[in-house]
Structures are given as C-alpha cells and as structure tokens.
Write a structure and sequence with these properties.
The complex is a heterodimer. Chain A is of the alpha/beta class. Chain A has 16 helices and 14 strands. Chain A starts with 6 loop residues before the first strand and ends with a helix. In chain B, strand 7, helix 9 and strand 8 form a beta-alpha-beta unit. Chain B is built from 13 helices and nine strands. Bound molecules: pyridoxal-5'-phosphate.
Chain lengths: 394, 264
C-alpha cells in the first residue's frame, strides 16, 4: 500500500529536519500496521458510524438543478458529520492511530478552525491532550471556533510569525513537534506534509468517495458524469476523487480559491498558478516567487487560504487525470447564497467554491448528466464572514 | 581531505559561528565575516534567509524576515562571499539554506555559483539523508561537502548518516528549533560518542549554544561548536549602531568582545 519513498510520480517525499525523521518513519510503520489489522478498521468504523453519523447522505439538489437548467446536481453531505465538516473522518483515524502508537499528546494546525475543532473533539473523546496552532489572523476571523476548541478542552496557540495564517500555523506546529517529538503525535489536517501523511490522510478520507460512489449507483443506477470538490490542502478532494480515479469516463474537477482573481496577487491557486517546490515536508505545487520564498495566499475562506497543496494532486494534474480550476471569492459567495435560498443548506465557504463550479458545469450540461459535489462542510463557522460580506458587498 | 575537514586540524578555536546573510545589511555581513576570521574561527555558516524556516527559533526567524524585507537573495549571498574572497579572506564558508531556495535557483546552477564564490560546503536543514542524493552529486563534482545533520532522535540512523559524511557531521544538541537554551539533551554524551565512533570526519555540535561555559563543555566532547542564535541576537541588539557609519566600528568591537567572551 505505501511506497517507502512516498512519491506520487515525482511529487511527495519527505523533506523534514533530521530530528523528525525517526518519528516519520515510526508513523509509517504504525500506519502500515493498521492497514493489516482488521481490529483497527472495526474501531474506526464504530466511531465513524456511531459518533460522527456516517454514512452521510447524498442529497439530490432539485431546485439548484432547475436553477442551473442542465445537468443534475447531487450533494455529498459531509456538512452533516459531527463537528460540521469532513475533517472529523481524518482526526478519528489519526487519533486512533496515535493511541495505538502510545502517544497521548496531539499537536494540530488549523486554518478555518474546522480541523482544530475536529482534533479537540477527538482528543476529548479519547482522553488525550491537544494543542492547536492557529495563525493570529485566523484566530480573529474564526473566533467562534477558537472558543469551541477551548470549550472542548484544547489549548489554542495563536501564531504571530510570518503572515499569521495557516502556513505559519503549520510551521509552528512542526516546530512544536520537533521539540516534543518523543511523546507527541502530529495530527495533520490535510493531505499534505511528509510521507506517509498524504497517503494516510487519503486513506482516512476515502470513505467520502467510497460512500458517494455506491450511493450514486444505488440511487441513479449509474456513475456521475462529473465529480467536483474544493481543494485547499486537498483532503476532501482526494477523499472524494479516489473512488472515481479508475472510472475513466468520470470527469474529475478540483476547485482552488481564486480569491480576488487569478490575475491579481491575492489568490490561493497553487495548482493553477504555482510551480513545484518544497513546503511543509513535501515536493508539490505551491505559490512562491522566483527565489523560492513562499508567497502568502489569499481566500475569503480560511480553509483554502494556503499556498501549498497535497502532492497527489500535483501528480493528478501532471498526468491530466484531474482538471484543476479556480473560483473567486465573489463567485463562491454567490454560490453560498444560491444554496441557502434554493436548498435550505448553508454551506461552508470552502465548499461553496466547489458548488460554484458545479453550477457552472451543470448549466453547460444536459439533463442526462449528473454532477456530484462534495459539500465538505457547513457554514456555521462562517456566519460572521458571510454577514460582513453581504452587508458590505451586495 | 576536504577544505572543511582540514579546517578543524589547523584551527585552535573550533568555533563555527552562524550569520544570517544580509542581516542587518550585506556590508555588515562582510564586516562580520572579517571580524570572525580575525578571531580565528574554524568556518562560518552563512544562512540564506527563507520565508518559512521550520528548523529555526524566533531570533533567526526575525533576522531572516528583516533580511528578506531588505530584498536579500541567494545571488546576494554569493556576492557577499565573492567580495570577502576578493578582499583576501579565505575563511571556509558554509552555505546554510532551506531546500526550496536552492531548488528554485536550480541545483546545478547553485552548486556552480557557490563553488565560484568560494563556498566549501552546504548545510540544508530540511533535506534528510534519503532525499539528498541529487544535491550531494552536484556538490561532489565541485569538491564541496554536503554536511549532514544528526539528532538525538536519529538512533540507528546515525551509523548510515555519519559513516558517509564529508566535511564534518553537524550534531543537533537537543530537540527543538535553533535558539538560546539552558540545557542540552540528557543523552548528549552518549549521542556524541555514537556519532564519533561512526564518523570518518570531525563532529561539531550546535543548537542552543549561547555561553562560554557551554562552549567549553562542548569543546571537550566535540571537535567544533556552532553558535547561531546567540550571535544573531547580539547583532540584533546592536543593529542600529551597526547600520550607522559613525557607530559601526564601536558596535563591531562589541561583537568582538562577545566572540572573545565565548572563547574565554
Ligand atoms: C469545510 C472545509 N472544506 C474544505 C477545507 C479545505 O481543506 P481540504 O482541501 O484539505 O479538504 C476546509 C479546511 O479547513 C474546510 O473546513
């Protein structure tokens, strides 16, 4: 299952300080051990079903479909997970692995706070200690989630270095891991980082696509024509895409944040605009200048506001299996409104990026076509941002 | 034997200071290199400022941020080295850089330009042994050393890393990032002995060394001692003076006093 060099084509690898190398190798061994251990699967399934509420529903978005006037739109409802996003799938898996490896202290980074909340939640459930690193700028933008994490017993550390967002929180989490590597487990929040993280996070998130594929077949009798997911670090996307990669007829679309536009400097489109380099332990596409200095990203959604992307997406782009595109802040906010008004669902702004692209594809498609969208999270955390945007903008 | 390995034999201080290149300015970095050479250091690490230095603590992060704000690039670091050489100073220089700036420059090009500028070796803190072949091959061809790092957590990895080392082996004193520390890993002695018994080249220890007493203690256990954050902190405290024409000499002398103090 895992390749020891951890490469997806030429992407991936393990670019971490030597102090972390043994921890990363131990993690790889731990991960390989659970792959061969049916008792782990049973333990994980139990929490996914009886704690998080899986399987999540597949919703046919009837009014949104009518509005788009073309292909049918189906929503994979990851927003209905406990804690409100797909992030919990991964934290359940990683925290159970940490427990098996005898580590009771979790370190996590968070942008929107969704991964932080999911980490704090699972730490409480399993009686573990949890420290969450979060950029000062995000602490401000996502104050509610900071409070949630604290209520759940986690310690939130506000990071004041660099651009004070997710990239810097990740730097600081890695520094904290270096200092406490012997008793701490780094619970990474997306399909990024050194090997085996990208493969491991995919393994814990692939339940999204596995369920959705079976649900589509059962409900409609066939596979979707198109599958769409938003791409920050790429965990909900890789979780959704994996089940469909071998279905060559299924078109797959990853949607990055175009922020204020791809022709501006304020976006987070590592795959659309960036070029390969090394950030946070792996070789992948990223936003950096000609000198290799990382360029801070911008997106209205904190969860997509990251200048890197998981290495498997870089590979899927390179081989042309997935089409990567980008949606602006404005387009995403428009999709937020449409889903609220037409379906009674308030989506996370991250997920609205995927929705916006799905609506565009649907309106260009025919009634025989079906578009499956990963609705990665709910918008409760974004109330303040959405309110401010529509009061100021529209 | 390579330039770096040789420098440990001829040298009495066995001190390897680290500077953030271009901080507070390119000229001051050049002045500091001369000053450190006069004090008889073994070699100097020139740190290439990087936006996301995961192995560094707050002091080096801050200095690097300022250097970047001043627009310092890898090409500037080469020009600093070249100037020093043109001024007749042949102190061994080590390029300390995260991997991404090197990749962006191109590994082949970076090796050629570093050789031209007179660098003796590279240290790349986020490039572990398993990922290092490509860069090492480039450096080998030009007789520069890729100095490997080993940490107290390296355990069974020490043998394979140290036994193939060239130049010297950089032993990380403790877990965590660079910075000023009170104490080192509790198993430091055993760790250093393990490295020494596997290494064909000298061993140097760094991360957190800030006082003369620590330097003395570590010099007994290793062939060289690396001082980074503590020196950068001195430079930071004297930043204003170093950047003013009329106060520069006095500030440089204060740094000289600090360096002499480390060795006393
Ligand atoms: C709801 C939601 N969707 C998507 C993302 C983006 O992450 P990823 O690309 O790893 O799925 C986040 C991140 O915080 C999120 O909260």
């Amino acid at each position: 299952m895992t390749k020891s060099n951890g490469r997806f084509g030429s992407f991936g690898g393990r670019f971490v300080p030597e102090t972390l190398m043994n921890a990363v190798l131990e993690l790889e061994k731990g991960f390989e051990a659970i792959l061969d251990d049916p008792t782990f699967e049973i333990e994980m399934r139990d929490l996914l079903v009886n704690y998080s509420g899986r399987p999540t529903p597949l919703t046919f978005a009837k009014r949104l479909t009518e509005y788009a006037g073309g292909a049918e739109i189906y929503l994979k409802r990851e927003d209905l997970n406990h804690t409100g996003a797909h992030k919990i799938n991964n934290t359940i898996g990683q925290a159970l692995l940490a427990k098996r490896m005898g580590k009771r202290k979790l370190i996590a980074e968070t942008g929107a706070g969704q991964h932080g909340v999911a980490s704090a939640t699972i730490a409480a459930l399993l009686g573990m200690e949890c420290k969450v690193y979060m950029g000062e700028e995000d602490v401000r933008r996502q104050a509610q989630n900071v409070f949630r994490m604290e209520l759940l017993g986690a310690e939130v550390i506000s990071v004041t270095s660099g651009s004070r967002t997710l990239k810097d929180a990740t730097n600081e989490a890695m520094r904290a891991w270096v200092a406490a590597v012997e008793d701490s487990f780094y619970l990474i929040g997306s399909a990024v980082g050194p090997h085996p993280y990208p493969q491991m996070v995919k393994y814990f998130q692939r339940v999204i696509g596995d369920e959705a594929r079976a649900q589509m077949l059962e409900r409609t009798g066939s596979l979707p024509t198109d599958v769409v997911a938003c791409v920050g670090g790429g965990s909900n996307a890789i979780g959704m895409f994996t089940a469909f990669i071998d279905d060559q007829a299924v078109k797959i679309h990853g949607v990055e944040a175009a922020g204020k536009g791809l022709d501006t400097k304020e976006h987070a489109a590592s795959l659309s605009i960036g070029r390969p380099g090394v950030l946070h332990g792996s070789y992948s596409y990223m936003l950096h200048d000609e000198h290799g200095q990382i360029i801070p990203a911008h997106s209205i959604s904190a969860g997509l506001d990251y200048p890197g992307v998981g290495p498997e997406h870089a590979h899927l782009k390179e081989i042309g299996r997935v089409r990567y595109t980008a949606v602006t802040d404005e387009e995403a906010m428009e999709a937020v409104k449409q889903l609220c008004e037409l379906e009674g669902i308030i989506p996370a702004i991250e997920s609205a990026h995927a929705l916006s692209e799905a609506i565009r594809l649907a309106s260009n498609g025919s009634a025989a076509e079906k578009i499956l969208v990963c609705l990665s999270g709910r918008g409760d955390k974004d109330m303040e941002t959405i309110r401010a945007y529509f009061q100021g903008g529209i | 034997m390579t330039t770096l390995a040789k420098s440990f034999q001829s040298n009495k201080t066995n001190l390897i200071p680290y500077l953030v290149a271009g901080y507070p300015s390119k000229q001051v970095t050049i002045d500091l290199i001369h000053l450190l050479s006069e004090e008889g250091v073994t070699a100097i690490e020139l740190g290439v400022p990087f936006s996301d230095p995961v192995a560094d603590g707050p002091i080096i992060q801050q200095a690097a941020e300022k250097a970047l704000a001043n627009g310092v690039t890898l090409a500037d670091v080469f020009s600093i080295a070249q100037t020093v050489r043109e001024q007749g100073n042949h102190i061994p220089l080590i390029l300390f850089s995260y991997y991404n700036p090197l990749l962006s420059y191109g590994l082949n090009q970076v090796a050629r330009d570093a050789a031209k500028a007179g660098f003796a070796g590279f240290i790349v803190p986020d490039l572990p042994f398993e990922e290092s072949d490509e860069l090492r091959n480039q450096l080998d061809q030009l007789n520069m050393d890729l100095v490997p790092l080993v940490a107290p957590t390296s355990k069974e990895r020490v043998a394979k890393i140290a036994s193939t080392a060239k130049g010297f082996v950089y032993c990380v004193s403790s877990l965590g990032t660079t910075g000023v520390r009170q104490s080192f890993a509790s198993n430091l002695d055993a760790f250093l002995q393990q490295v020494r018994s596997n290494s064909p080249v000298p061993i140097a220890v760094g991360f957190g060394v800030s006082r003369a007493s620590q330097v003395q203690e570590l010099q007994k256990k290793a062939d060289g001692v690396i001082v980074g954050s503590a020196l950068v902190k001195q430079v930071m405290e004297l930043e204003q003076g170093l950047c003013k024409k009329e106060e520069k000499q006095k500030s440089l002398e204060q740094i000289r006093v600090f360096v002499k103090g480390l060795l006393s």
